[in-house]
Description:
four-stranded antiparallel sheet
Amino acid sequence: MDEVSLNSEPAYDDEADEFEIEGYCGMADYIGQGGTIQGENPLPPAVGMEFDSYDDVYYFYNCYAKDQGFGVRVSNTWYRKGKERYRGKLSCSSAGFKKKSEANRPRPETRTGCPAMVKFRLMDNKRWRIIEVELEHNHLIGPASGKFYKSHKTMGVGKLEKKRPPPLDTSTEEVQKVRLFRTVLVDAEDNGNKYSEDGEYGIGVDQSNQLKLKQGDAQAIYSFFCHLQLMSPNFFYVMDFNEKGYMRNVFWADSRCRVVYRYFGDVVVIDTTCLTENYEVPLVVFTGVNHHGQSVLLGCGLLSGETVESFTWLFRAWLTYMLGRPPSAFITDRCKSMQAALSDVFPRASLCLCLSRILEKLPDKLGGLHEYEAIKMALTRAVYQSLRPHEFEAAWEDMLQQYGLRDHKWLQILYEDRKRWTPVYLKEIFLAGMLPVRPSEGMTSFFEGFLHKCTPLKDFLCKYDQVLQEFHQEEAMSDVGSRSSSPALISRFYFELQLSKLYTNNIFKKFQSEVEGMYSCSSTRQISVDGSINTYIVKEHAEVEENRRDTRDYEVMHNPSEGEVLCVCGLFNFQGYLCRHALSILNQNGLQEIPPQYILSRWRKDIQRNYVLDHGCNIIDVNNPVHMYDHLYKCGVQVVEQGRKSQDCFKFALQALDEILNKVHLAEDLG
C-alpha cells in the first residue's frame, strides 16, 4: 500500500476493514490522563487506545509531545474512496530529513530521522485505535528546554474538551478539572436492556461479555471516578467496552499508587479472590508491601470474567499506568487464564502462586478424606520443612503412597505446578516477605473487613476512600513510631544495634526473631573450602512442629572477600533480612556488621519517601487556571506529606498554612 500525505491524492484500499491488531483483544477507552495539556502529565500512547475521531488522536499525541518536549507533524494519512480517512501516522517533528536544496545558501538540516511515532486506524466501531507505537527518540528532548514547536501553537482546551460529559458540579473550576476523552454509561437492567445515550432502550442484549451491573451502578462508577479525579489531578482510569457499548472491564489508580510503586514495586500481589469466588463486586486488586511490611495499593480493576482477554486488557492497562516498568515477580491465585495473560504481558517476570491461598483450600479439596488431619500434617511438613527439591519430592511421594492419594486430581495439579508455589523452588526469587515461610503465617486481602461476598458495588465505592485513608494513617503512625523510638535490644550483637538504627520497627522486630534464634544454633563447623568460598554446617535445635523439637543441619556458604553469605534456608530472598544461620557464621568469623548488600533500602526508616507525583516539568503557565491549580496542588500535598511525620512538623505546617492563607486573602483584597 502506498503512503500518501494529507495533500496527496488518496490511496484506495478496499480490504482495509479486514485489518486486525494481532495479540490485542478488547476495546479500550483511555480516560482521564490524556486531556488538556496544561498541568497534566499525560501517559504515553499505547497500542489499543481508542478515540472518537482522527483529530482526537492528534490532540492526545500533541498533549503528550508538549509534556515531553517535542513537536508533532502528520507524516501520512490514508484515504478510501470518497476521501474518507481510515488510517494515519503522526511522527516527531524531527522525523525524516529535508529534501536537498540546490540554493546558494540552503538551510541547515534540523531533522534527525527520529523514529518516534504512532500509527492509528479507523475500526469497524467507527473509533480510531492506535495500532503501533514507537516512544524512543534519537535526539534529546525535554519540557524544560523552552523550545517552541508549531504543533503546540494552537493548543487550547481542544476538541476533546468539548466532547466531555458535564461533571456533577458544573462550576468553572471543576469543568476544567474533569478531562475525559469519552464516557459511556450503561446500566444493566434485570431484563437485559441497554439505555443508550439518546434515551432509547435496546432489547435482548447478551450480558456474557459485560460487567454484571445493577441499576445505578454505572452512574456510581462514573461519579466515583469524577470525585477522585477532582480530588487528585493525576487520578487515572480506563474503561473497556464491548461491541454493543456495554462496560466490560475497568481499571483505576491514583497518583500515589504510581509513586508507591517506584519505592515498593519489586514484588506485586494480584488478588482475584472477589472474581474467582463470585463476589458481587468482581474486584481485582494489585498490592505490594511498604517499608513497614504493610500492604500498599497499586491499582484496582473490575472484570467481566476470568478470560485471557480480560486479564490481558487489565495487565496492559496497569503496565501502561506504571510507565511500562514491570515488577520482578508476581504472586497470584492459581488461574490458567490469568497465568497465560501474565506470561504474555510480563514475559520476564517470575510468576509465583500464592501459597496461603493453596493451603486455605485444603479443607475443601481434602476435607472429605478419612485421614484428613494426618494428610494435612504430611503436606504441611513437605512444604515447610524441605530444604532441597529432592527432599520435597520424596516427602510428597511418601504422602501419596501412605494415604493412597496417587490418583487425586487436585494433588496431581499441585505437584505439576510445584515450582511456582513451593518455597524450596523459589529461593532464587526475591519476595519481600509476601510468601509465608512458616505455617502460622498468611496473607490477607487489602479490603478484608470492608468487602464481603454480598457487598453491593455502590457500597464498596463509598467505603473505598475510607479504607485508603485508614491505610495511609496506619503508615503515617508507623513512620512516626519508627523515627521516635526503637524496640529494646535482646542481645549484645552489634548487628542488632546496627539495624535498630536503620530499619523500621516492624521489620526490625522480625529481624530480632532471627537474632534470638541464634541461641538455638548449637554448633557450626566448616566442611569444605573452594577458592574463596567456605562452606559450613550450622546445627539448629528448634521447634519443627507444635510440641516437637528437632535438630537440623543448615548449609551456609561464606565468601569473606566479597562479603557474601548464603544459607540453604533462603530466608533472605523470602523475607529481606539475613537468617539466624547466616548471622551465626558472620559472628563466628568476627564480622560485627551486616554487609551492605544485605541492608535493603526498601526497609529503611531514614529514607524520605515523597508520595507526590513529580511531573519533572518546571514550566508554569500563569495564565492558565488549570495549570496553576495543579502546581499549587502538588506543592500543597508535599507540605501535607512532610507535616504528617511528627507532631512538631504538623503544628509548624498548620501554622504556616494559616499564615499563607491570610497573605493570599490580603493579596486578593489588594488586587
